[in-house]
Design goal:
The complex is a heterodimer of chains A (477) and B (337). Chain A has 477 residues and is an alpha/beta fold. Chain A contains 14 helices and 22 strands. In chain A, strands 11-10-12-13-15-14-20 form a 7-stranded mixed beta sheet, sandwiched between helices. A 5-stranded mixed beta sheet of chain A has the order 17-19-18-21-22, with helices on both faces. A 4-stranded antiparallel beta sheet of chain A has the order 1-8-6-3, with no helix packed on it. In chain A, strand 21, helix 12 (420-432) and strand 22 form a beta-alpha-beta unit. The N and C termini of chain A lie far apart (86 Å). Chain B is an alpha/beta fold and 337 residues long. Chain B has one domain (20-321): Thiamin diphosphate (ThDP)-binding fold, Pyr/PP domains (Rossmann fold, 3-Layer(aba) Sandwich), CATH 3.40.50.970. Chain B is 41% helix and 11% strand. In chain B, strand 5 (191-192) and strand 6 (195-196) form a beta hairpin. Chain B is globular. Classes of the chains: A alpha/beta (477), B alpha/beta (337). The interface between A and B is large, with 74 and 71 residues.
Chain lengths: 477, 337
């Protein structure tokens, strides 16, 4: 059978083009890679190369022909042992055989249900549907109660983070810490204090100031099964490295069809510190929470910090672990148990209440609890939820709470546009719309870069009073 | 071995370096890549391959020569012009082609495409789509080898376009600082998409790009598989001796456009024809085989037929393998903890 030469597409969107020129004539011999024709579209001119060798048996489409459909037969090549008679059977129907590519011809296949196709939710069964919410995807035992501990010790967040790393490094040789000033300097914020002494410079690695490079390196090491804990001096600097966090760490498992996992933790202080200006004061929670393939954690207390960092290090996926510099020195009770680990994806009700739900994470949890005290004095019973994990989101706990209180205030330091509060408002609208007695209120940072001046900085950040005011507003008080 | 940028080697011909069997092997491997890529180009033209498709035609000697310098335990990572690297690593052409067509039988089960394929079994780590992104990743693979005390090297390929990315120098610095076993293979095909090296690089000698970090480098005729292999062996030996990274600038040429939709109007036809006629890597080995009486024309034709049949089989598999099940949309996003 003679070999059909088809009109090629220059791009997936091309459907037809002009056969501008033949550079061979019937009877010419051609080999693989020889240019035989030129085709044109409105965008470009391209050469057509022979893929097989043989003799040009017949030119079907004359040069200069316009609107030749992609995949139409434009010529026949005779193989070595064929002569022109082989063309008798084929040339009769030389009309363009414009068979569209299978991908284009195929009808849109119905994809399995996803968040995009979530149907409006009626009041009943809200909990069941909340449990199916893809935002909560992969939450294991979402309703499992936190293990109870009897013995506690008082620790700062800083110490809790350090202990979490040290404990995991003791039990797993593949865990190592890498970042700027993590070893000899003992950590820019002293979070890695003592690690160099205990584990040596093979496992506690001081890097140059080179976020893009060392984040890519740690990601490559994680592809090979090491478990790097990458410290960013602050998450503001991770902007240099966000390409590797998203494009390499978060997407490779999917792109490799499940072959290459990436067990890595990216940690460091996130959000505003004090008087450090616009480039050192941003909250990145919603940036990372946007991306499938990542888990995003934002602890508040020392117990959160310890239990969740241990969980993050043990997790086989890339985890973005957002700490807060102001919290580093604050003390909390932490279970005195080497096996203390908290489940990722599970929020904690820090204070029970009946009139309004306040959802917060990281430093805003403390402000929310103080606001709740103020509200109690004014006769409003606020329930405060500490999210602990942003992605996957504990939809269940939030929905249950709102079904009880019928009012919701979200709190975050970050900007409101496309923020975490916006996502939570959407969750509640989808799953508990009929339970709401007031529109959801969001308490966020002001929509400005962080100012330096002390008075302006206070105004830019969400404060306890904003939460109190928002809670009263949704209670119509 | 000397320290900083080393000799510039226009031709490091090493005719006695390869046995007859080796030459035949290189010939077949390069031919497989070429025929595979021609077929891929054809399937793209038929609409069976979508999106971006960057062909390796013309550059075959680089990857075949480098693979001849390492063992199967060494790692390989590259950018999106990756089909040749995968075939040279011994990955199944049918699995690669089926990934190009986005089918279930592809290496990433159709979820990666031309630019994103991996094989843990063959120590091939992608397949990365952001220019230069594979360079710190490959450096990290080498960090892992050193951390575990393994006698392995990571070949990290990058193009002449990627050498201007900042992360490349961040990687050079740390690799040299920590003496990591990584060979940076700069495939200088002289065009960063449509911008020629003269227009994108202040200094044309890319093998010197590690000079500031004390990384030795050499320029190699990347159209000569034996020269590549010989330089590759020097580079790999340097790494295995614990001396840290090494840079090879492999001067090569891609016959096709940057991707399938690039008509390559930024260079002359004469330039391309000259390379194809005078420096074709496959013709060069063919001549050695014939002149050395290692094989005759008929023998070469048998190899050709054999390779063609393998590629035809791969193309058939790639067209008949079903598209991934729709449930695949939601798999491989996270590993169950």
């Amino acid at each position: 059978m003679p070999i059909e030469v088809l009109m090629p597409a220059l791009s997936p969107t091309m459907t037809e083009g002009t056969l501008a020129k033949w550079t061979v004539k019937e009877g010419d011999t051609v080999a693989s890679g020889d240019v035989i024709a030129e085709i044109e579209t409105d965008k470009a001119t391209m050469e057509v190369e022979a893929v097989d060798e043989g003799t040009i048996g017949k030119i079907v489409i004359a040069e200069g022909t316009e609107n030749v459909a992609v995949n139409a037969v434009i010529a026949y090549i005779l193989e070595e042992d064929e002569d022109a008679s082989a063309l008798d059977n084929v040339s009769a129907s030389s009309a363009p055989k414009a068979e569209a590519a299978p991908a284009e011809a195929k009808e849109e296949e119905k994809a399995p249900a996803s968040s995009a196709s979530a149907a409006p939710v009626a009041a009943s069964g809200a909990i069941e549907r909340a449990e199916q919410d893809p935002r909560a995807m992969s939450v294991m035992n979402a309703t499992q109660d936190e293990k109870t501990y009897t013995s506690f010790k008082t620790q700062t967040v800083r110490e809790a983070l350090r202990d979490a790393m040290a404990e995991e490094m003791r039990t797993d040789e593949n865990v190592y810490v890498m970042g700027e000033e993590v070893a000899q300097y003992q950590g820019a914020y002293k979070v890695t204090q003592g690690l160099l002494d205990e584990f040596g410079d093979r496992r506690v690695v001081d890097t140059p100031i080179t976020e893009y490079g060392f984040t890519g390196m740690a990601t490559g090491a994680a592809f090979m099964g090491l478990k790097p804990v990458v410290e960013f001096m602050t998450f503001n600097f991770a902007m240099q490295a966000i390409d590797h966090i998203i494009n390499s760490a978060a997407k490779t498992l999917y792109m490799s069809g499940g072959q290459l996992g990436c067990p890595i933790v990216f940690r460091g202080p996130n959000g505003a510190a004090a008087r450090v200006g616009a480039q050192h004061s941003q909250c990145y929670a919603s940036w990372y929470a946007h991306c499938p393939g990542l888990k995003v954690i934002a602890p508040w207390s020392a117990a959160d910090a310890k239990g969740l960092l241990k969980a993050a290090i043990r997790d086989p996926n890339p985890v973005v672990f957002l700490e807060n510099e102001i919290l580093y020195g604050q003390s909390f009770e932490v279970p005195d148990d080497d096996d203390f680990v908290l489940p990722i994806g599970q929020a904690k009700i820090e204070r029970e209440g009946t009139d309004v739900t306040i959802v917060a994470f990281s430093i805003m949890v403390g402000k929310a609890l103080k606001a709740a005290e103020q509200l109690a004095e004014q006769g409003i019973s606020a329930e405060v939820i500490n999210l602990r994990t942003i992605r996957p989101l504990d939809v269940n706990t939030i929905v249950r709470s709102v079904m009880k209180t019928n009012r919701l205030v979200t709190c975050e330091e970050g900007w409101h546009f496309a923020g975490i509060g916006a996502e939570i408002a959407s969750v509640i609208m989808e799953h508990a719309f009929d339970y709401l007695d007031a529109p959801v209120a969001r308490v966020t940072g002001e929509d400005v870069p962080m100012p330096y001046a002390a008075n302006l900085e206070v105004l830019a950040l969400p404060q306890e009073q904003h939460i109190v005011d928002a809670a009263k507003a949704v209670c119509y008080r | 071995m000397a320290t900083t940028p080393k000799r510039k080697r226009g031709t490091t011909r090493a005719d006695n370096q390869a046995s007859s069997d080796d030459l035949l092997k290189y010939y077949r491997e390069m031919l497989l890549i070429r025929r595979f890529e021609e077929k891929a180009g054809q399937l793209y033209g038929m609409g069976l391959i979508g999106g971006f498709c960057h062909l390796y035609i013309g550059q075959e000697a680089v990857v075949v020569g480098m693979q001849a310098a390492v063992t199967g335990d060494d790692g390989v990572i590259t950018s999106y012009r990756d089909h040749g690297h995968m075939l040279a690593c011994g990955m199944d052409p049918a699995g690669v082609m089926a990934e190009l067509t986005g089918r279930e039988g592809g290496y990433s089960r159709g979820k990666g495409g031309s630019m994103h394929m991996f094989s843990k079994e063959k120590n091939f780590y992608g397949g990365h789509g952001i220019v230069g992104g594979q360079v710190p990743l490959g450096t990290g693979i080498a960090f892992n080898y050193k951390y575990r005390g393994q006698d392995r090297v990571c070949l990290t390929y990058l193009g002449d376009g990627a050498v201007n990315q900042g992360q490349v120098y961040e990687s050079f610095n740390m690799a040299a600082l920590w003496k990591l076993p990584v060979v940076y293979c700069i495939e200088n095909n002289q065009y960063a998409m449509g911008t020629s090296a003269q227009r994108h690089s202040a200094s044309p000698d890319l093998y010197q790009r590690g000079a500031a970090y004390g990384i030795p480098g050499e320029q190699v005729d990347g159209m000569d598989v034996l020269a590549v292999k010989e330089a590759g062996e020097r580079a790999v030996a340097h790494c295995r001796e614990g001396k840290g990274p090494y840079i090879l600038e492999l001067k090569t040429y891609r016959y096709r456009g940057h991707s399938m939709s690039d008509p390559a109007k930024y260079r002359t036809k004469d330039e391309l024809d000259k390379m194809r006629k005078e420096h074709d890597p496959i013709d060069m080995v063919k001549k050695l085989l014939i002149d050395g009486n290692i094989i005759d024309e008929a023998g070469l034709k048998d190899i050709d037929k054999d390779v063609k049949a393998e590629v035809a089989k791969a193309a058939e598999f790639a067209q008949n393998s079903p598209e991934p099940d729709v449930s695949e949309l939601f798999t491989d996003i996270l590993i169950d903890a």
